[in-house]
Amino acid sequence: MTRVLFVCLGNICRSPTAHGVFRQMVDARGLSGRIEVDSCGTAHWHAGEAPDPRSTEEAARRGYRLGDLRARQVQPDDFARFDYILAMDLSNLADLQAVCPADFDGHLGLFLDFAADSDTDEVPDPYYGGGEGFTRVLDLVEAASEGLLDELDRRGHL
Q1: CA torsion sign, 134 to 111 to 37 to 64?
Q2: Catalytic residue list
């Protein structure tokens, strides 16, 4: 079983979108028994909350469901549990690197490293912007999710 964790700041916009999109792509490829997906935030502010309604609505327009997800904060045991811990931006990656145990042998990096031909390294936080920000997040997440699945297949993790 390969375990993938998506991480943003509050776990209500970007990382639950990645969670829902990637989960559905995993299911569509018949890999749900081989890949476990989760998401969390580096901050605790929204723990227990559902994803931002704008994320949920934009995802639903493309056929993704996020309604069952609830925010949580990253925990020390996540580094023992997950093989891939993927941050949405450099700030959250730095926060993860600061608490990452020395013996972590998984992949800790940026999610968009898996997006082919991306014009950016970071998934921008849409929280304070308009609806176009949530659309942009979905575009980037879909591209990176496809790339991540291809990489997992190349590495024999499926």
Answers
A1: positive
A2: 8, 14, 125
